Amino acid sequence: MEVALGSILFIPGQFSKGSHAGSLKTAGRPAEEMSLPGYGGSPAPEDSSFDTDFILSQIDAAVPEGKVVLAGNSAGAQWAILWAARHPTRVERLILLNPGGFWAIPPAGVDLFMKDYTPEKLAKWDEAGIRKYFGALFTNEQAREAYLRDLLKDGFDPKAASAYIRRSFETSVYAPLGIVGSLGIHADIILGTADSFLQLDPIRQAAFADPMLHLHEIAGCGHMPQLDCPDETERILRKILN
Question: Which of 4, 155, 170, 195 is most exposed, with the fewest beta carbons within 10 Å of its own?
Answer without folding.
Answer: 155
